[in-house]
Design goal:
D-Maltodextrin-Binding Protein, domain 2; Arc Repressor Mutant, subunit A; transcription; DNA-binding transcription factor activity; 9 helices; DNA-binding; alpha/beta; LTTR; 3 domains; WH-like_DNA-bd_sf
C-alpha cells in the first residue's frame, strides 16, 4: 500500500527478545548479552511499538507470549539465523579443510540436519565427516585425535579440551499412548536397555535398586532404533533423555507407575585440540548455538 510505513526490525532487539524467551528470563538475557536489564526492557518496549501489539502477557509470576509474540518469535529466529549465516559466510568465504564430528544417536535427527545444512551453505569448501557412535567410543576417538569434535554425555572423566554445554534430565521412556509396560503386582520391571557399558542403563538400575524395586533386563539392543522398537512394542521401559525421541515412544511423567526419580545428565562438547583449525571452531560454535534452544526445551 502506497504511503504505508515500512517497519525495519532491529536485529539486536530481536536477539534480546529471542534470547529472553529461550532462557525464560530477560534478566538472564541481559546478563548473557552484556547489557543492563533496563536496556533490554527498553528494547522490548521499542519492539512492541514497532509491532503495534503487546508481545508478552503476565502468566502467574512470569510472562508468556501473546499470539503476536509467538508469531514474531518465529520470524525473529529465522532472521537471526540468516544474519548469522551471512556473517559467517562473508567472514569465512575462503574457509577450507576437513572436520570430523562425533555425535550420539540422540542428536542425529534433531540437531544434525540443521547444523550441517547451515554450515555447508556458509562453508561449501569444508568437508564434514560425521560418526554416530556410543559415548565411550566418541571420547576415545577424540582423545586419540581421530575426531576433531564430539558431543558426548558426561561420563565423569573430563577431557583436556572439553566444554560443559549443560544438563539434560534423564526420563523413563514408555510406549506412546499406552501405560508403562510391566512391573505390576510386585513383578520385576522389564527394562529395555543398550548394551553395557551405558551411562543411562547404569543410572536406571541404580535408581531402581535404591528404591527397592525389582527389575529384569527384557531386551538388549546395540542401537537406539532397536531400543525404541522394543519400547514401542510394549516389551518394557527404557531410560533416555527427552532429546530426539521418536513419535512411537514418550517420556513418562514424574512418578508415573511409581517409577523413581532419575538424575540429570551432563552434556559436553569435546575438542581434540585446544586451538583447533578455523573450520572446527566454526562448526563448534554452530553446534553450541543450536543446542541452546534444544536444551531449553528438554
Amino acid at each position: 500500500m502506497i504511503g504505508m510505513r515500512r517497519i525495519h526490525f532491529d536485529l539486536d532487539v530481536l536477539r534480546s527478545f529471542a534470547l529472553g524467551i529461550e532462557l525464560g528470563s530477560f534478566a538472564k538475557a541481559a546478563e548473557r548479552l552484556g547489557r543492563s536489564t533496563s536496556a533490554v526492557s527498553a528494547q522490548l518496549r521499542k519492539l512492541e511499538d514497532q509491532a503495534g501489539a503487546p508481545l508478552l502477557r503476565k502468566a502467574g509470576r512470569g510472562l508468556a507470549l501473546t499470539d503476536a509474540g509467538e508469531t514474531l518469535l518465529g520470524y525473529a529466529r529465522r532472521l537471526l539465523d540468516l544474519n548469522d549465516e551471512a556473517a559467517a559466510a562473508v567472514r569465512g568465504v575462503e574457509l577450507e579443510g576437513w572436520v570430523r564430528l562425533g555425535l550420539q544417536e540422540d542428536f542425529g535427527e534433531g540437531l544434525l540436519p540443521e547444523v550441517l545444512g547451515r554450515f555447508a551453505r556458509a562453508h561449501p569448501r569444508v568437508r564434514v565427516e560425521v560418526r554416530i557412535a556410543r559415548n565411550a567410543e566418541l571420547l576415545e576417538r577424540v582423545a586419540a585425535g581421530r575426531l576433531d569434535l564430539a558431543l558426548a554425555w558426561d561420563a565423569g572423566a573430563v577431557g583436556a579440551h572439553a566444554e560443559r554445554v549443560g544438563e539434560v534430565p534423564m526420563r523413563w521412556i514408555g510406549a506412546a499412548g499406552a501405560p508403562p509396560a510391566g512391573g505390576r503386582d510386585g513383578e520385576p520391571l522389564p527394562l529395555v536397555v543398550l548394551e553395557a557399558p551405558c551411562l543411562l542403563r547404569s543410572a536406571a538400575i541404580a535408581a531402581l535398586d535404591r528404591a527397592g524395586l525389582p527389575w529384569r533386563i527384557a531386551f538388549t539392543s546395540a542401537s537406539l532404533a532397536g531400543t525404541w522398537a522394543a519400547v514401542a512394542a510394549g516389551l518394557g521401559v527404557s531410560v533416555r533423555t527427552p532429546l530426539g525421541l521418536p513419535g512411537s515412544v514418550r517420556a513418562l511423567a514424574a512418578g508415573e507407575a511409581g517409577l523413581p526419580a532419575l538424575p540429570m545428565l551432563g552434556l559436553g562438547l569435546h575438542r581434540a585440540e585446544a586451538q583447533p583449525p578455523a573450520a572446527v571452531s566454526r562448526l563448534a560454535a554452530l553446534i553450541l548455538q543450536s543446542l541452546e534452544g534444544l536444551l531449553h526445551s528438554a
